[in-house]
Amino acid sequence: MNTPEPGAPTLVALQRRAIGVLAELTPAARELGEAFARAGHELALVGGPVRDAFLGRVSADLDFATSATPDQTQAILARWGDTHWDIGKAFGTIGASRRRGGAQVVVEVTTYRTDAYEASSRKPEVVFGETLEGDLSRRDFTVNAMAVRLPELAFVDPFGGLADLARRTLRTPVTARQSFDDDPLRMMRAARFASQLGFDVDAEVRAAITEMNERITIVSAERVRDELSKLLLSDRPRRGLEVLVETGLADHVLPELPALRLEVDEHHRHKDVYQHSLTVLEQAIALETGPDGPVPAPDLWLRLAALLHDVGKPATRRFEPGGGVSFHHHEVVGAKLVARRLRALRFDKETVQAVARLTELHLRFHGYGEGSWTDSAVRRYVTDAGPLLERLHRLTRSDSTTRNRRKAGRLSAAYDDLETRIAELREKEELAAIRPDLDGAQIMEILDIPPGPVVGQAYRHLLELRLDRGPLAEEEARAALLEWWSAR
């Protein structure tokens, strides 16, 4: 579908908004432009900060492109800033920061360049360019290929980025095939910007991704992980995830997600697990809290768990003789699949363990609605969740996507009741710090044994008693320990 050209009033309104934002550019950035001009070099504000100015946003960090070489840039920034760094010098980037009037200004200045991947390489080859227009041509999308020359504040838009921004469309400066051939990660960025900006992906761009999606496999897992994380942490991740699945990119970077599109049989014996998972993600996001709450938004662990909690269903689906469908132990299978995928994407160990654990526990609550849990069961629920309890609360609540209002009401009321009981037990028993009633030193003294594996076994036995029976007086715990020791 072709998007109509934006009218002149729309473009004028965008330009006025941008002028207002750019006028607020810190004097330090304007001074930087003057410093490069005095040295005989060009300098332009590029990419996201320019795009955001037209969207009425102020970017905290400023990205610049220059005709100067990295060595020349470093010399200028050493004089301009309070500190500077050259960690990206191999890619032509020098960074600096400067504090003026209580405000910290952080800049990165990159020499005009082009970079492209060899057919089988995981690292792009960097080649420095000579013109601003050439540098802009190598950028991912036209809305990111606009610039403002400094210090004169001259707007540069050789590829129609402003019109695409007005249309809210993602289009590439050169042909989409050439752009994605140069850097396959741009295909992931199309999905990410669809989520972050709420833009549509141009038909040519979508077709090129669909045709070339396998090329994403030459990109390092770490770079793919970072793009996926940015997408998930955006305000509208569903939009970008749909792009990944519909173009086939997800088949290579997150194959468990498209695998959830289970064929719905003619009797509609189960819901669409893929759509269900996207809805659970949206509902979990709605339950995130402000910065002072227990799960501040955006929370990557919760969002990953919400998206992937049912990935064990395809492998465990069984059609029952009576016409039903079952997914027995899909939470256990799913936890293993989640851990394997997140490790493949080079997520850190803590994230892998947390998301896998939430996946494993997400069904635990459903036994609560079937009958009254003992205090022991509530203690175990809290202990098993540990520091993930607040996320588990939100994941479990989000997992209810039924349109049956009566059923939804029952589930919500049951979970309200469970949370109330947790709060009551926590107040009485300090649930978050459940420990046996005797510590290791007391165990060794009572049993007259040295440190070793037996102490750990006794400790775990007392912990089980603590979970089952609640707090014990010291004499009761001592008697229980001696009874266990005698039975050995």
TrEMBL record:
It comes from the Bacteria. InterPro entries: Bact_CCA-adding_enz_type3_sf, HD/PDEase_dom, HD_domain, HDIG_dom, NT_sf, PolA_pol_head_dom, PolyA_RNA-bd, tRNA_adenylyltransferase. The keyword Translocase does not apply. SUPFAM superfamilies: Nucleotidyltransferase, Poly A polymerase C-terminal region-like. Keywords: Coiled coil, Magnesium, Metal-binding, Nucleotide-binding, Nucleotidyltransferase, Transferase, tRNA processing. Its EC number is 2.7.7.72. Its cofactor is Mg(2+). Pfam families: HD, PolyA_pol, PolyA_pol_RNAbd. It is an enzyme of class 2 (transferase). GO terms for molecular function: CCA tRNA nucleotidyltransferase activity; metal ion binding; nucleotide binding; tRNA binding. Residues 269-430 form the HD/PDEase domain. One of its GO terms (biological process) is tRNA processing. The keyword tRNA processing applies. Residues 408-435 form a coiled coil. This is CCA tRNA nucleotidyltransferase.
